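Re-run with default settings, no changes from the original entry. Doing this only to confirm the output is reproducible before filing.
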Amino acid sequence: MQDVNSYRIGIVGAGALGGALAIALNKKGFTVTKIFSRSESSIKKLCSRIDGSSLSKSVQEVSDNTDIIFITTSDNAIQTSAESSSWQKGQIVIHCSGVSGLEVLDKAKRDGASIGSMHPLQPFSDMDLGSKNLNNITFGIDGDKIALDIISKLVKILDAISIRIDPRFRALYHLSGVMAGNLLLGMASSISDIWQKIGLSREDGAKALIPMMIQSCKNIIELGIPQSMAGPYVRGDYDTVKMHLDSLQKSHPDILPMYVELAKISLKYADEKVGGAISQSKKILELLDEYN
């Protein structure tokens, strides 16, 4: 097998994820040869970041000129992209979906290519920023023997971590990432909005609250579950929780259901840490149910 760094890289889908991977791999010494996307402006933007890369008019043109092809389109476009081209033995075709199985690459497999998946557990909103934030993140990977060997090497070169994902549980794996990323962003945005009610901006809220969120997450890594739990649910502060509920009911009734459900979940881990007698979980649960 040839040295992995000598493989020519092709990108199908020049959005934030495809762009981040292309830029990061190029910085690690890989030649990113061809880029195709539905948006020509996206291709030109990415090509401007990578010397030696060029715009392609089709997936087939990418396939004809590259060895490792990343399909970084939306999930529902992966199979269409794979089926729109012919592939050949020696190529490695990799999709970057967290939820899709390898079957979406069946056309490439039938043509003789090796197939795999390499999904980063990381939100991508911008290709330049994303390319700088790949080290130490986790990639969920799968594939045939050849593809897995190449993907494992690519992840290591990116200074990241790889874990093998059982195809039966891809949806559960992916939804955990969505909750930790996309839904966490939604929660962070909504709680920042609360600051507008106290005479400050949601930007002020974000600047103040995000470091707290980051430290809370660090506490999980450093102290573990449930020892990282803190706050009114651990202390059994019934009156504090009631004030929260009353305030939300008046000012942000749209956020109240989220608070109630997250509080119920938190009580489970509060009990695990200090026991129900201290956390007052039964009494607080009854209170939370009154606000459903």
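Strands lie at 8-12, 31-36, 54-55, 68-71, 92-95, 114-120, 138-143, 161-164. The domain at 4-168 is CATH 3.40.50.720 (Rossmann fold).
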